[in-house]
């Protein structure tokens, strides 16, 4: 049995401890704030396999299959619902691009199809069909509750003996050559250290700071925090906009009905580089901009009261694909998930546990595609489609 430290108590750090414990490993999980306090509890709940490249499609096809079994596996209601994603085209060129994406997705078993606006209106009763020519519709995409999902993972992990610590900040490492031998951490003002056999950096926007603690350059994995915001309306009757609905050419604007209370969550690519890693201040330009898009997508929303606005980080690499893999001898990373870390967590959690514990995994994760050292080599992947 090895002792593995996981840094970051969001969903990407929260899934591997359970998987590692199932493989018989001893795990200590560090979260400097409270669990989920980073991007995870701020996310828009969306889960999709509709990507535009083979690596992300195959990974998400597998992740959706894991999501389908997760409630049973973890024994908790996480409110996973396959309510679909509907992308909407506003030009003939976009319809052609949708068709090419659909062919690629179908090749890997993702059942997306092109639909007309009558069918789209049946799926989303409040949709304004007039501006759109066609939709890319995958009924197997969906949504889940991020709070319930993370807590379910952590509950089961703790049951298997995982030592999961909140308000405990990792502040450094002890190393012998390239190997990390101990993690130093601070809790309640007290500094301690614990000997470990391996470390997983799952600190997302903060990951470059953790890399620096391991003696690497902060820029080796260039992750930049962008403030991504959402607003939510008062609850609407269920069934009005259950899928995530997005016309990508409208600045990646989207709406999705919250699976819990029926409020409509509205997002858009109106982003700001975060002024610091505590810059969660919502902005007025976003509020105005997102509501203009939302009302154009679904006109009845003009009568819905907005009850919340909040901000979180899209932790972005230069190609918007995460960095996943081994960085040093026993130091691993899974970070920089942009707008798709929540949906990828079941697959990535399992893959990282396999890699760290056994040196391999059956998860169809293309390690080369996500190779953390690709930026240093000047290799960028095609940009992953970013929205939630
Ligand atoms: P985080 O949840 O950010 O967790 C990292 C944790 O590391 C933090 O809790 C932080 O406190 C901790 N940490 C940092 N430094 C230290 C340290 N030194 N010691 C200990 N702990 C430390 N994704 C989707 O899949 N679908 C969506 O619909 C979606 N919508 C989104 C909407 C918004 C508004 C935002 C902001 C994001 C959205 N995302 C979505 C993206 C998704 O939320 C993230 O990709 C995902 O939550 C990343 O999880 P994580 O565990 O990597 O990071």
Record the strand order, biggest sheet.
8-2-1-12-20-19
Which fold name is given in CATH as the topology of the largest domain?
Answer: FAD/NAD(P)-binding domain
What fraction of residues sit in β-strands? Answer: 25-35%
- Average of per-residue pLDDT values: 97
Q: Give the tally of β-strands.
A: 20
For the record, the CATH class of the largest domain is Alpha Beta
Q: Kindly provide the radius of gyration, computed on alpha-carbon positions and rounded to a whole number of angstroms.
A: 20 Å
**SS field, number of helical segments:** 8
Instruction: Specify the CATH architecture of the largest domain.
Output: 3-Layer(bba) Sandwich
Could you give the order of the helices and strands? EHEEHEHEHEEHEEEEEHEEEEEHEEEH
Form type: globular
Structural class: alpha/beta
In short:
This protein is 28% helix and 27% strand. It has 8 helices and 20 strands.
């Amino acid at each position: 049995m090895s002792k593995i430290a996981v840094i970051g108590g969001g969903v990407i750090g929260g899934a591997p401890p359970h998987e590692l414990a199932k493989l018989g490993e001893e795990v200590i999980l560090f979260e400097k704030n409270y669990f989920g306090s980073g991007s995870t509890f701020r996310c828009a709940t969306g889960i999709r396999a509709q990507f535009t490249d083979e690596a992300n499609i195959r990974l998400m096809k597998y992740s959706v299959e894991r999501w389908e079994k997760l409630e049973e596996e973890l024994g908790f209601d996480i409110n996973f619902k396959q309510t679909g994603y509907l992308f909407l085209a506003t030009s003939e060129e976009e319809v052609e691009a949708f068709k090419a994406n659909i062919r690629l997705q179908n090749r890997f078993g993702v059942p997306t199809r092109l639909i007309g606006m009558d069918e789209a209106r049946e799926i989303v009763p409040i949709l304004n069909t007039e501006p759109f020519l066609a939709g890319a519709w995958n009924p197997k995409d969906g949504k889940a509750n991020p709070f319930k999902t993370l807590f379910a993972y952590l509950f089961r992990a703790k049951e298997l003996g995982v030592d999961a610590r909140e308000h405990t900040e990792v502040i450094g490492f002890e190393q012998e050559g390239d190997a990390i031998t101990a993690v130093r951490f601070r809790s309640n003002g007290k500094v301690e250290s614990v000997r470990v056999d391996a470390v997983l950096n799952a600190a997302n926007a903060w990951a470059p700071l953790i890399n620096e603690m391991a003696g690497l350059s902060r820029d080796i994995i260039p992750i930049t925090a962008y403030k991504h915001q959402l607003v939510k309306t008062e609850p609407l009757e269920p069934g009005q906009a259950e899928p995530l609905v997005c016309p990508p050419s409208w600045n990646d604007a989207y709406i999705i009905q919250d699976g819990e209370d029926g409020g409509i969550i509205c997002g858009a690519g109106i982003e700001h580089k975060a002024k610091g890693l505590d810059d969660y201040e919502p902005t007025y330009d976003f509020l105005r901009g997102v509501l203009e898009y939302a009302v154009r997508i679904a006109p009845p929303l003009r009568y819905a009261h907005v009850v919340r606005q909040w901000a979180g980080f899209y932790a972005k690499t230069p190609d918007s694909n995460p960095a996943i893999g081994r960085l040093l001898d026993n130091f691993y990373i899974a970070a920089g998930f942009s707008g798709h870390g929540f949906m990828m967590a079941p697959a990535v959690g399992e893959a990282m546990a396999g890699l760290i514990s056994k040196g391999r995994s059956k998860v169809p994760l293309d390690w080369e595609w996500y190779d953390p050292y690709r930026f240093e080599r000047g290799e960028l992947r095609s940009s992953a489609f970013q929205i939630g």
